[in-house]
Structures are given as C-alpha cells and as structure tokens.
Amino acid sequence: MNGATPRVFGLSLSAEHFVLPRLLRKPVRMLSRFGRGEFTPPPYAASMLTAAFLAASSLYGAYVGGHFPALVQGVTARSGFAVDQIKVSGNRETSEIDILDKLELDGWTSLVGFNPEEARERIVSLPWVRDAAVRKVYPDTIEVRVDERDAFAIWQHGSQLSVVEKDGKVIAPFTGGRQVSLPLVIGFGAAERGSDFVAKVQAYPELASRVRGYIRIGERRWDLRLDNGITVKLPENRVDTALADLAALDRDDAILTRDISAIDMRFGDRLVVQLTPEAVERRADALKAKPKVVKAKAGSRT
User: Which of these, 148, 186, 190, 147, lies nearest to 168 by C-alpha position?
Assistant: First the structure.
C-alpha cells in the first residue's frame, strides 16, 4: 500500500472518486497539509493576528464606551468630509452666531458623523425660531433654513417689556432695534386681547398714527394714550361706534389738538372732556376777570 489516501472532512481525495475544479485544488491541498500537520504558518502570522485582535478589541471598546461616533468623526474628517461651509437662510431676528453655536461644530466635525435632527432641535430652542430644517450636503456643507415667529406688539407688564405674537405668546424681551415701531399694549390681558383691538383702531389711520399706547383696563375695556398725552377712555361695549365718533370729532372739530388731558366716552349719552391743569388755570383766571369787565361797562353807561 502506497500510503493513506488524503481525507478532508471525512472525504477521500483520491482520483478514483472525483476530480476537484481547478479553483478549489490549492485550498484543498492546504487544508489537507494542515490536517496532516505538514503546514507551517509564516513567521509573521502571529503578529498579524495579534494586531487584528487588538484593533478589533479597540473598536469594540470604543463602541461599548460610547466613543465610536468620535472615532468615526476623526477618521472621516481626515478623509475629506470635514464641515467647511455653513449656509443659513430665513433668519431676520436670530443672529447667525447663535445658530452656529447651536450646531456645536468644533473645527474638525465630520459631515458623516454630524446629526442634523439633533442640531435642528437645538436651533428650534432659540427664542425667535418657530421651526428649522438642517440638511447635510456632501462633501462639506451644512444648510440651515429658519422659520421665525412674527412679532405683533410690545407688551408692557409691570416694569418689563416683551415682544409678543398675535396670540399673546412671548417671543423675547424687548431690546429695541426694529421692534421699536411695534404697537405698545399695556396691562394684564393686553397681549392676548390686543390683536383685535389694535386692528379696529387701525381702521382709522389718522387716529392710529397718534396712538402711543393701548392700555387694557381691568380686563374689560381699553384706553388710548395719544402722542400729545391725551387719554381716551373707551366704553366696555360699543367700541366700534365710539372709535367712529372720535374720528369724526377730530376730523370736524380737531378735538384731539385742544388743550385737554382726557376724553371720557364711557357714557352712551354724553362725552366728558377733562382739561389740562394749565387750561383749568387759564379758565379760572378768565372767569375772575369777567365780572370786572361787566362792571366797567355798566359804569360807562351811567
């Protein structure tokens, strides 16, 4: 007998049984030699296996320890996917610096590891931002589109000033700037109820242009504070009628330019006008002087 027939996985490799395809012959011969103990691995095989094991262990440790995203960031950033451009649109009141701060970029952030949804949630937390969209554009760009809230008025509550929306929701503290031209609504409930009332006054442009403050009184009615200091006290009901009457009085008699401090329109059957202290004093002096004039005229007839 010329020797044992080579066997792999219990199968005889004798030509009497079958002939392997050419592509499988070399791998099968190596397995056969390894099974007979004739195969000697190369001298560097142990080092390669050790290095592969250490690399796999490092990757697994980074994954378990929560450092895998940072590892991906570093590798992909060095591979040409570092964020290099940021495009911001839609922001009028929100500064680009605040938006960039919410992106939390550190100079080597990779576009691959950047999470746009988490960035969007941070941007939406800014006071003026109603909604936002953040998009990655490969290889190196982040696009941010912002939808901002609409300012309606400045609301004075106590000593504080806030910019509010039409529904009364506070946007941010008032700091000046372009909001200085917004209507000023004053008092408790003025922010929530101001939108409808301001619209009614603005139906009379000449009157609205002189209003400096819309004052909510007892959550029941409104006063108007004009640019010359006159206070117009409007009724709780019949507001539309009262505004129309006030506009007509000013158009026909220029009542809002007279030396008065207040116009009380709360009574349906009459209008009460309050003079300024200076006007009261002048009227008192005029009344004192009137009898003397009458006596002088009477003496001249005798």
Answer: 190
CATH number for region 153-279: 3.40.50.11690
Distance CA 91, CA 133 (A): 12
User: In the structure encoding, which two tokens stand for residue 291, read together?
Assistant: 């009898």
On the question of a cis peptide bond just before residue 139, with omega within 30 degrees of 0, the verdict is yes
Residues of the chain with CATH 3.40.50.11690: 153-279
pTM beyond 0.85: the answer is no
Summarised one tens digit per residue, pLDDT across range 154-203 is 999 999 999 999 999 999 999 998 899 999 999 999 999 999 999 999 99
Domain 75-148: which topology?
Answer: Ubiquitin-like (UB roll) (3.10.20)
